[in-house]
User: Fold this.
Amino acid sequence: MFDRLSSLIIALTMVAIAAILSALAGGQALTITLLALAGCAAAAIVYASSPAATNAGADTHAPPSSSVPSLLRHPGFARWADEEAAPMIGTTDNIVTLANKAAIRLLGPHIIGADIRTAIRHPAAAEWLADAGAAGARQEVSLADFPRPGHRWTMRAAMLSGSDRIIILSDRSAIDAADRMRSDFVANASHELRTPLAAILGYVETLQDAESDAGGDTRRRFLSIIEREARRMQQLVLDLLSISRIEADRFRRPAAPVELSAIVSASVAQLRGGGDPRAQEIVLKLPEAPLSIMGDEAQLGQLVHNIITNAMKYGRAGTPIIVALEREAGRVELSVTDEGDGIERRHLPRLTERFYRVDEARSRSVGGTGLGLAIVKHISERHKGELDIASEVGRGTRVSVSFPAAGERA
Ligand code: ADP
Assistant:
């Protein structure tokens, strides 16, 4: 009913009134003094021992806004937020009160204490922040070209008590790049298939033309072009299937040891048995001792085949193609060296991209699909291999892959 201090004053006043009334009623001075002192002492004891509950009660009923429990002010929250990889910003009345390490890295330390609309300078962000939290407001907003052209982030907010909110930013640039790569790949593959298909249809129509007086020789020439283009399409489809199979397996490490010398010998024997005279120029340099790596036999066979056939296609006819296997410091290195025009330095980093060719016409004329080295790169990665392409214009090219030997740590 009364606060502590008021109660004490009232108690002391009542002791004083009782003492005055006792004196007026003719009581003894000593008795009245003793009773007054006892009353004061009792009031003081009660005052000292009563809790300050009345004060606290007044705060709970009308709390200042800063004492509302909020996640932003939780002692462990800032520490937890710093561990998060995504930038997180806490705001109160749109003023940034908290930013985790990732947010400081992205936006700078000056954002603490700034208005969130100036901290994240983007038109879409400003518009979204104005009505975030309103009924029907979008859950997430996309920030194109933020913080630099070509990048994209998204931003979402969690509303907390009062005017507090947490804003979380996510980097979508890598996902966008992967989407772009996927659609470029589909467009490139369609283009690659369309070119031989158009040639096949053209020659078939010419042969079918009743007016056509194509004689035996012309007919045979047209048919051989049709066959070549159909084989090109077939190779392309096989390479596309290979790429998708290898990609599907990419997180599955090969679990069995395989003998690399045997795989290389088998590949070379198969090429020598084919009709290409260049295969007879392969010089095989294998060590006596077997060289084992953890691997997928079929995929390694394809890797060896692709690297050697490139040397056959792009090396100069009449020059040797040296295929060597060596063991060095816990690794096994396969290398294929040819003599030919070589590759200009600027092309080297892009050779393993799908459909990248230095000279498109030349690649097509030798039956290339532009996927051979992309397949090599994927197979090499699955086997923890290190692929290296070294070339000198006018001299030739050396392609090597070094794998951890079986039993060695990668
Ligand atoms: P392709 O089917 O066109 O041969 P690859 O992916 O195997 O495709 O190779 C990509 C490009 O790299 C080739 O088009 C060619 O320009 C170049 N290249 C690859 N290997 C060699 C080599 N041994 N010598 C010269 N150029 C090469």
Q: What stands out?
A: The first strand starts at residue 88 and ends at 92. Confidence is low (pLDDT under 50) at residues 51-65.
